[in-house]
Design brief:
The chain is α/β, with parallel strands linked by helices. It is built from seven helices and six strands, in the order αβαβαβααβββαα. The protein has a single domain (2-185), classed as Ribokinase (UDP-N-acetylmuramoyl-L-alanine:D-glutamate ligase). The mean pLDDT is 92.
Length: 208
């Protein structure tokens, strides 16, 4: 981090899973030291199978050290449930949860609704400075190739912020991108199990 930030700097930072309190503390220290803007934190802590990936002390460090320095966090419903120590499972739960997550110290919250039941897969964006809740409608896409969905979404948000987009535009553009990547990826088979989303769908043109 020192080598990159002292040389070229950064317009935005995306953070994924950090395993231990020690790593979380060091990353937070460097982000503060170099005054990094537009920190996008994807608080990865639950696997696709539902297993917890972080120890309780790492979750606490995430809540108290890193989230307060984030410009936006992008938890899904299971991750929001862990961060708030209560179940977040319905659209009604999401409204309250988005505000409570922002109270952990971050500026904005994108609460992802991919774990909602039924066909609904809508997300919710809360902007703390304007006290604005924005519903981002989404229909569940039937595809086995969803590996990397959350990581790709947060990375796309980060890219939009780095280009100078406002938070709402960056989130909406990222959601449109990942929706297209999921739809396009449904047509492909890559190995066994969950395949990846099709990141390059906008650049690839099938001859058929």
């Amino acid at each position: 981090m020192d080598a990159v930030l002292s040389d070229i700097g950064t317009d935005a930072v995306k953070i994924g899973m950090l395993h231990s309190p020690e790593v979380i503390e060091m990353v937070a220290q460097k982000l503060i030291q170099w005054k990094c803007p537009n920190i996008v934190l994807d608080p990865v802590m639950i696997s696709k199978s539902g297993d917890k990936l972080l120890r309780d002390d790492a979750v606490m460090a995430l809540k108290t050290i890193l989230i307060p320095n984030a410009f936006i966090i992008t938890p899904n419903l299971p991750e929001a449930s862990v961060l708030l120590d209560r179940e977040v499972t319905t659209p009604e739960d999401m409204i309250r949860a988005a505000r409570d997550l922002a109270d952990l110290g971050c500026g904005n919250v994108l609460l992802k609704g991919g774990h909602l039941t039924g066909k609904d897969s809508s997300d919710l964006l809360f902007q703390k400075d304007t006290d604005t809740l924005t519903q981002l409608p989404g229909i569940r896409i039937d595809t086995p190739n969803s590996h990397g969905t959350g990581c790709s979404l947060s990375s796309a948000i980060c890219a939009g912020l780095a280009r100078g987009l406002g938070i709402e535009a960056a989130v909406k553009n990222a959601k449109a991108f990942i929706t297209g990547a999921l739809k396009a990826g449904a047509a492909y088979t890559t190995g066994k199990g969950h395949g990846p989303v099709h990141h390059f769908y906008a650049l690839w043109h099938d001859p058929g």
